[in-house]
Write a structure and sequence with these properties.
By secondary structure, the chain is of the alpha+beta class. It is 25% helix and 28% strand. The strands form four sheets. It has a six-stranded mixed β-sheet. The protein has a six-stranded mixed β-sheet with strand order 8-9-10-12-15-16, covered by helices on one side. Helix 1 packs parallel to helix 2.
Length: 297
């Protein structure tokens, strides 16, 4: 196996406190540790700088947002340049007054901000009131050539949409990163927990298979109860994982503790898999026009 094809991923799975500055400092420390353990592309969990505030609709939470460029991209830019690592950092973006996005910044190994991806699919469910906070993305699906490989980035709820994975892979992405904040309503865990988690992992593994690429999903972990919000909060299920180009789980983090998942992947496997399972070759692009419709009569 050619060493030039081996790239090491670092997924940061952690808890979050009510202090954004402490969360940023701590995540930077985790990224430093990941780099020290050989990671070349590091990805944070979704909205790592705060607790998952979307458990309620509260205007004061807009104060958590920041601009891009801003404090988080500047801090990770310095780290990326120092450690020669590419970074995917999830940010609550303030674009303008009244226009906010759930955004991932892609920073190359020289500290350059390559670009951003704005979450396209915005959920609205009990304790996941994201439509109150986030304007749907308007940049489309994108891939970036970093020093260590060509990557695409999607965010959490985007995980469930094969169209998003496909359109990103068609731009040459060898790895799809999915910064994530997903967990159980504690009262539902016993009845639905196993099925919910299995569905989440299975759909993402299917993206790896269908597109012949790696999938990397860092998730947060731990119970989060927001001050002033009633109920039992959300128990984030962790279990960050990396799937190979044939959908196999290469590595999976624990369900109950913080963890840095360090995973070497062979980017040469992407070309080999796409050659042996030529799904991209055999697509009937002449027959897919109805995909742009909500329903087909």
């Amino acid at each position: 196996m050619s060493r030039s094809n081996i790239v090491t991923l670092g997924l940061l799975q952690s808890t979050a406190s009510p202090d954004p500055d402490a969360n940023l400092a701590r995540t930077l420390d985790l990224a430093e540790e990941a780099a020290g353990r050989g990671a070349q592309i590091i990805c944070t969990q979704e909205l790592f700088r705060s607790q998952y505030f979307c458990q309620s609709e509260d205007h004061k939470n807009f104060n958590l947002a920041e601009t891009i460029p801003g404090p988080t991209t500047e801090a990770f830019g310095r780290l990326a340049k120092k450690r020669r690592v590419a970074v995917v950092a999830s940010i609550f973006e303030k674009r303008a007054a009244g226009v906010y996005h759930n955004t991932a910044a892609v920073i190359d190994a020289d500290g350059t901000l390559l670009g951003i991806y704005r979450k396209m699919h915005i959920p609205d469910d009990p304790l996941y009131y994201e439509k109150f906070y986030f304007t749907p993305g308007d940049l489309g699906f994108k891939a970036w050539q970093t020093r260590h490989g060509k990557i695409g980035v999607l965010v959490c709820w985007d995980q469930w949409y094969p169209e998003a994975a496909r359109l990103t892979a068609l731009q040459g992405a060898q790895i799809l990163f999915y910064p994530t904040a997903i967990g159980w309503h504690p009262s539902e865990k016993k009845k639905h927990g196993v099925v919910q988690h299995d569905s989440w992992e299975t759909i993402q593994r299917s993206h790896a298979i269908a597109n012949g690429c790696y999938v990397a999903a860092p998730n947060r972990v731990g119970r989060e109860k927001i001050a002033g919000v009633g109920g039992a909060g959300i128990e984030f299920w962790g279990q960050s994982f990396v799937a190979g180009a044939s959908g196999e789980v290469i590595a999976r983090a624990s369900a109950g503790k913080e963890e840095i998942l360090i995973v070497p992947v062979d980017l040469g496997q992407v070309e080999r898999t796409r050659t042996h399972w030529p799904f991209l070759r055999d697509r009937r692009i002449d027959a897919y026009g109805n995909l742009t419709k909500r329903l087909v009569d």
